[in-house]
Amino acid sequence: MMTDLELILSGATLILTILLGLLFSIYLPSYTKEKAKNLATKEDIEDITNMVESVRAEFAKESHLLEKRREVYERISDSLRIFIDGHNNCSQQQNAFHSAYSACWLWAPDDVLINLNKFIKMQQDNAENNHAAHDQERLKQVYCEIILSMRKDVGFSETTIGTERYAFVKF
């Protein structure tokens, strides 16, 4: 037969086991669910952070590229003046043009290079034929196409200004 102490201990153990069972059956699933939710949130935040950093890096790259293109376009548009009638054509300006032209091949998109090469080819034709191949109006139009394609590339893609609006000023 069981003694009173054994009976009390058995009853206490039974009650404690029932309480622990209830505690685990109620608390453990909600605890596990909350832990899983927190882990998923942590993973989501990590993914979002990675996406933000990726976008930030891409934006920085595009900003640098745009800044570089603007710099190159300023140089090439300034140096292209040697081809316009009435402008000085010294060796220093020719060197500036060659340097800017090389930089364009590194930084400019295809449409800018196509227009630039079209203009240079026309100038070469004129040099070989003593200005007989292409008249000044056509050269000016192609020059304006270069400037307009550079303008569109650096942020004015929706521009409605045409090449006919470019003014060539003589002093």
Q: Could you explain how this protein is built, in words?
A:
It is a single chain. The protein is rod-shaped, with a radius of gyration of 38 Å. It is mainly α and 171 residues long. The chain has one domain (4-165). The chain is built from four helices and no strands.
List keywords for this structure.
single chain, 171 residues, mainly alpha, 4 helices, 76% helix, rod-shaped
Question: How are the secondary structure elements laid out?
Answer:
Blueprint (H helix, E strand, L loop, with lengths): L3 H76 L11 H17 L2 H19 L7 H18 L18
Helix pairs in contact: 1-2, 1-4, 3-4
In round numbers, the mean pLDDT is 86
By secondary-structure content and strand pairing, the structural class works out as mainly alpha
End-to-end separation: 126 Å
In this structure, how is the largest beta sheet organized? none
Regions with little confidence, pLDDT below 50 for 5+ residues: none
The helix/strand order is HHHH
Number of β-strand runs: 0
Helix content, binned percent? over 70%
Number of domains: 1
Percentage of β-strand residues = under 5%
- The coarse overall form would be rod-shaped
